[in-house]
Amino acid sequence: MKAQVEQLKMCIGGNWVNREAKIDVYNPQNNELIASVPSASKDDMLEAIKMAEEGVKIAANMPVHERASILYRAASLLEERKEEFAKTIAEEGSKTIREATGEVQRTIETLTISAEETRRINGETLAFDQRPGSENRVGYYYRFPIGLIAAITPFNDPLNLVAHKIGPAIASGNAIIIKPASVTPLSALKLAGLLEEAGLPRKVLSVVTGKGSEVGDVLTQHEAVQMVSFTGGYETGKQISAKAGVKKLGMELGSNSPVIVLKDADLSKAVDSTVSGSFSAAGQNCIGVQRVYVEQEIYEVFQQQFVDKSKKFIVGDKLSEQTDMGPLITEGEAKRVESWVKEAIDKGAKLLCGGNRNGAFYEPTVLANLPNNCTLAREEVFGPVVILYEVDTLDDAINRSNDVDYGLQAGIFTQNIEHAFRAIHNIKVGGIIVNDSSDYRIDAMPFGGVKNSGLGREGIQYAINQMTDPKVVCFNLSN
Question: Is 9 helix (H, G, I), strand (E, B) or coil?
Fold first, then answer.
């Protein structure tokens, strides 16, 4: 046990405040108390919104060069403190130190891209004289910030997913309030401190740590909020959309991602990519591989190689450079995954490897012969579990890929370009990765899904489009 638990304050419009009520933050690996943060009240959130209403005007009046400079400086400061932030991510969450270091690097890129995109928020001229009688009219449109963004972020990427809300908001001249996941609030608070150090004006950003049941509705339903940007589960997203009122919604709600492996695939590459895509971040990854459809001719050899590689995954201490996979975010989540696997086995699924839990740790688990009437077949497991299926044809694999209520990303391994394009055009997802697993993303690409996987797109340029509105300007000239 640490001699002294870190006490962090929350940021309300640039004021760093403490509260008697606390949220304790535990390392899921050993349940060690590592920090505590304020547990915000309804009044705290209302105060953050009040200050943000002033921040809206401040942010909108910041010139482009100032927005860009702040974001560039923040990226530079984060580069200097990469090890510190990586350790925070690894300690408060599920990621290994290698995965956490990768997340910090991605966050640097997210902030840098946000800085670059400040210069590309442009409009265009409009041909008003296309309408008879409008020959003397000229004009254009430009994009302006919508105002106050409410952002709710999950635990699985506690730094970069926060940056994916804050970066585009600052770049586009908006104010933003972040409500981070209660189990992983430390990275968000430290990022807010970094942005303050980089010169972000007060009142533009708040990070309010509190229980969703206490402050979530206050934030998302407030009339001063023009957009809710939410990353999390479908049921919570559905509740937010039902209550939020008339405002913009951007939602990334998870998936049950499929990957297709055809008989002409590079087998070694397919195995390596799908195993990594299944178990990185302990499977707590919205684009992680959950279903693998393998063409019949290569199924047996693929299954054997996949299971062999899965068994070699090193599970253990998150801070060790040799560790491949750490624990789930809580023991409760590990127990949930355990119960889903047990249900599947009880209904006839075959356990190929894994299936054992130790506290919050759950072994990389591979199943086959999964019946359709179990939870794992339909829902997002958000844990280190993957299901292998044998299929006869590409069309069968496509149909089965589509046979869930989610559609975020998919992958296909093939050397046949016609097969690749058939999958591209027929799998109902927001992104498809050819000759890699579903678990691939760059921070500049449009990211989001269809069906129950969400609304809108993230990725800096595309988030900025949602955080701004076009304003038309038309001149009626005398000559």
Answer: coil
53 is catalytic: no
Distance CA 386, CA 133 (A): 63
Element (H, E) at 261: strand 257-261
3-class secondary-structure state, position 15 = strand
Do 350 and 420 fall into the same domain?
A: yes
Query: Do 73 and 51 belong together in one domain?
Result: yes
Q: What share of the chain is helix, strand, coil (3-state, %, to 5)?
A: 40, 25, 35
Same domain, 358 and 313: yes
Question: 217-234, pLDDT tens digit by residue?
Answer: 999 999 999 999 999 999
pLDDT band, residue 6 (cuts 50/70/90): confident
Quick one: how far is CA 290 from the chain centroid? 17
Residue 1 lies in a domain: no
Q: How far is the C-alpha of 44 from the C-alpha of 272, rounded, in Å?
A: 48
- Here the CATH number for the domain that contains residue 10 is 3.40.605.10
CB 230, CB 34: distance < 8 Å = no
**Assigned domain for 426 exists:** yes
Nearest to 389 by CA among 381, 399, 379, 380: 399
| Spatial distance between the Cα atoms of 353 and 355, rounded to a whole number of angstroms | 7
223 is catalytic: no
Active-site position among 109, 286, 363, 458: 286
> Domain containing 430 — which CATH number?
3.40.309.10
- Residues in contact with 289: Cβ distance below 8 Å, sequence separation at least 6, in sequence order: 257, 259, 274, 277, 278, 386, 411, 437, 438, 439
Residue 449 lies in a domain: no
Which tens digit of pLDDT belongs to each residue from 43-74? 999 999 999 999 999 999 999 999 999 999 99
> Residue 376: which domain range?
257-444
Domain match, 70 and 143 both: yes
Whether residue 149 is found in the same domain as residue 173: yes
Q: Which of 92, 99, 117, 252 is catalytic?
A: 252
Q: Are residues 16 and 126 in the same domain?
A: yes
Domain-located, residue 347: yes
Q: What's the one-letter identity of residue 304? A: Q
The count of domains in the chain is: 2
Cα–Cα nearest to 175, from 79, 308, 48: 48
* One domain for residues 247 and 265: no
244/332 same-domain check = no
What SS3 class is residue 223? coil
**195-215, pLDDT tens digit by residue?**
999 999 999 999 999 999 999
* DSSP-assigned states of every residue in 371-422: -TTSHHHHS---SSEEEEEEESSHHHHHHHHTSSSEESEEEEE-S-HHHHHH
Model pTM score: 0.96
